[in-house]
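[agent] plan:
  1. take the single chain provided in the ticket
  2. run structure prediction with default settings
  3. attach structure tokens to the ticket
  4. add a short note for the reviewer (M.T.)
[agent] executing step 1
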Amino acid sequence: MLSATRPLALATTLASALLLAGCGGSAADSGNGRSAVAAFYPLAWVTGRVAGDGWTVENLTGPGTEPHDLEVGIKQSAEVARADLVVLEHGFQPAVDETVDTNAPDAAIVDAAEVVDLMPASEHDHEHEEAGHDHGDLDPHFWQDPLLMADLGDAVAAQLADLDPDHASTYEQNAADLRGDLEALDQEYAAGLATCERTTTVVSHEAFSYLARYGLQFESIAGLSPDAEPTPADLARLQELIEEDGITTVFSERLASSKMADSLAGDLGLETAVLDPIEGLSDETADQDYLSLMGENLDALRKANACQ
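[agent] step 2 finished; step 3 output follows
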């Protein structure tokens, strides 16, 4: 839910975005029955907003599936093979990369890893990568930064214009509208997290580092991958940090086990709460979208860190 202090303008933006349900523009003005596939939810949401109703946008990672765990089946392979456009993030889901290389050698591709500025992964992240999925030297979770999502939208619009020049102005306008929504969200985060009693936030895995530019510091129990295991030294360090900083909440997340967060919180008598990495939708969030989930995350962060 949106807090009472949040500006009406963003609430209006969220309502409008929910009505769009992942699409942008009007059916009369965009596309010509072409199809796109996106590797996982944030990419699919951006693609749908920019492409509009004239395109079919398929998300290869179905609701309730953790993107890291995706196994590409016959259905997804067929969707990739017939797609005019593929939107992915190279290195985040190796199974998707392999499927695209095999089944869509001629498709137009937008690779988020190439069109947005990914930040370096922390040393703490690399300590866990052998136990999980190796994402290399960069943190792939760029969609936590609304302005980087807007950059992805611009790149998708440019590629759509190349594929469908007759509707280039529609894609450009859809991307501009999307950027406006995302800039409003960015301003809401900046204002909402400007004055907090605490800035250190303990999360299950390192999916939120892009939010650090709003003044928060994130400490993860695991590394970049939700299935990585913390060492006893990691847990001891976190316990010390929690006591020193007066942290009251340990965040778990949807689509992944809350076991580590529950255990740490239980040992120290802390609260637990959900911070959604927005890697995908679930049954619980099926009626929501990126903007509304980011709004819920902001409310959760403000509460946990006693922000004014």
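[agent] step 4 note for reviewer: The domain at 191-304 is CATH 3.40.50.1980 (Rossmann fold).
[agent] ticket updated
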